[in-house]
């Protein structure tokens, strides 16, 4: 390679090593340069289904992604926490000024299990406020925490600004170490290198030349350092299905896990998992990879393939993962199968966020690259003080993208 190609390749590797995942503050940030509103007409009220079209348009304009009346029905009518768990179907709150919507915060009811009891949880979603009204943002979060029929409050996708408000309202950061560090493996070196160079602001000519050289360097790094998960074991068989085909063997595994003492877990059942990953107009495909040994179910991974390219990359995300035992060979077989599924979906990278330290340690055997959020995106607050104190232990959590709203959206 020429000296220029070498420099570009080195720049891509350095970017990977130093990457931080920048959280957008476009929907709820700090100073905006706009005059703050102080109107006496600004007020908070509970959101209604009649607000759906206006809220969806408002959120889309503020960068929150598409939504629909069908998805609102799914979240606040067909939700298993409401149908099976008798949770209150509370949509959330809107911030209004003279009848115009200038802010929104959703509240999704979810079921959790702890010490043999089912808890009603509420997860924030789609927090967005017009720049000129951000001084009123705390009114939305204060309303969220006033819900008297909720045992556990969650925010699993907090920006830095939202995290500061959560802390001010006495919510705590998740004690699960390194939750905000995303592990990832590169599946398409050429596309990854091109995306990295484009984000460095290089011209199309330099990007074209550099992406070829950088991809060769990345391929070498992946190959020689063993950065691509593989399984050579013939003991395990992997079966790939849709979420609609989850069988009874999952129920036994989930029961074993929820019976562990002092471990908080989002409730899982075939109905809940199907509801979670099957949204109207879904742009993402979720696949279930089940691992068997001599006919016995050993664990699973649910991998979600993103349907759209973001920042030049198409991602696959490990949305849920559970093992019958802490056997590194099982997770090796599952992770290798997840990578193959992601390649088949034409993803450029596959990511893992969250999960307990023992699982992350097993995943790290395959030397993933990593990037960090500027701050932890996961906050919690329990209504009962004794429960809140118990949840201060890292061992009390099995936190993953299955929690809260992180993987609920279409």
Describe the structure concisely for a colleague:
Helices cover 33% and strands 24% of the residues. It has 410 residues and is α+β, with helices and mostly antiparallel strands.
Feature tags:
410 residues; alpha+beta; Aminopeptidase; eight-stranded mixed beta sheet; seven-stranded mixed beta sheet; 13 helices; 15 strands; 33% helix; globular
Rg (CA only): 22 Å
Q: Main β-sheet, in a few words? A: 8 strands, mixed
Structural class: alpha+beta
Q: Provide the helix percentage.
A: 25-40%
Class of the domain at 181-187 and 228-372 in CATH?
A: Alpha Beta
Q: What name goes with the CATH superfamily of the domain at 181-187 and 228-372?
A: Gcn5-related N-acetyltransferase (GNAT)
Strand content bin: 15-25%
Write up what this structure looks like.
The structure is a single chain. This protein has 410 residues and is an alpha+beta fold. Among the domains are: 42-173, 3-Layer(aba) Sandwich (Aminopeptidase), CATH 3.40.630; 181-187 and 228-372, Aminopeptidase. Helix content is 33%, strand content 24%. It has helices at residues 3-17, 52-61, 69-76, 80-83, 137-145, 160-168, 189-199, 204-224, 248-258, 270-277, 328-344, 357-363, 385-390, and strands spanning 42-46, 92-97, 100-114, 117-129, 152-155, 172-173, 181-186, 236-242, 265-266, 285-293, 296-305, 315-323, 349-352, 369-372, 379-382. Strands 1, 2, 3, 4, 5, 6, 9 and 15 form an 8-stranded mixed β-sheet that branches. Strands 8-10-11-12-13-7-14 form a 7-stranded mixed β-sheet, with helices on both faces. A hairpin with a 2-residue loop joins strand 2 (92-97) and strand 3. The mean pLDDT is 89.
